[in-house]
Specification:
Organism: Eudyptes filholi (Southern rockhopper penguin)
InterPro entries: CENP-P (IPR027801)
Pfam family, one: CENP-P
Structural class: alpha+beta
Largest sheet: 5 strands, antiparallel
Keywords: Coiled coil
Order of helices and strands: HEHHEEEEHH
Shape: extended
Helix content: 55-70%
Coiled coil: 6-33
Strand order of the largest sheet: 1-2-3-4-5
Number of helices: 5
Distance between the termini: 60 Å
């Protein structure tokens, strides 16, 4: 009886060691395939993009100027989140394909809008021709907690088919705001 109990424990230990090994490999793969950005890195990227877009490559700016600009961008971001109700909780991207004039990146976003949560997964195809860069969204997949609302399901399907993220976020903001009002009203009458 002692040997059988020891054998069961040894089998369980071996099973757990294999599971740990698989999880460690999975973790390593996810660390290599995804890049997570902090809020500061996102804001610095936005600033860098604005500088390139506006042609303001002045060289090195003083730390106080950068800090003031960062605070300004944080204020703008905070305002946009309050105004739209959309708050991103995570973002990851991975380069799928890269050539001299074509880049395909896979993006994953998750967040919430008022009390509704959402997840997006899409590929962004960027093509560069001499001086212009065009971007096209492909393979859009949206997951929302819409419950039993068939209109939301139809809207999500239509958005996935057309790949129009701007329309999705505009509609989500409006729908989530009114969804929250309806929910509060129904709670009031209960």
């Amino acid at each position: 009886m002692d040997n059988s109990i020891c054998q069961v424990y040894e089998d369980e230990i071996q099973s757990l060691e294999e599971e740990i090994k698989l999880l460690a490999e999975k973790y390593e793969e996810s660390q290599q395939e995804s890049t997570f950005f902090s809020d500061e890195e996102i804001l610095m990227s936005i600033k860098s993009f604005q500088r390139e877009f506006q042609g303001q490559s002045k060289g090195h700016e003083s730390p106080s100027d950068l800090k003031a600009q960062l605070e300004s961008l944080e204020t703008d971001l905070s305002f946009l989140m309050k105004f739209t109700g959309i708050q991103f909780t995570s973002h990851s991207k991975r380069t799928v394909e890269k050539t001299t004039n074509r880049t395909v990146r896979k993006h994953r976003l998750s967040g919430n809008c008022h009390s509704l949560s959402f997840q997006l997964e899409f590929q962004l195809l960027e093509m560069q021709n001499k001086e212009t860069v065009s971007a096209v969204i492909t393979d859009l997949s949206i997951i929302m907690e819409s419950g039993e609302d068939s209109d939301v399901s139809k809207f999500v399907s239509s958005t996935e088919e057309h790949g129009n993220l701007l329309t999705f976020f505009r509609s989500l903001s409006s729908y989530a705001e009114w969804y929250e009002h309806r929910r509060c009203t129904f709670l009031h009458f209960k």
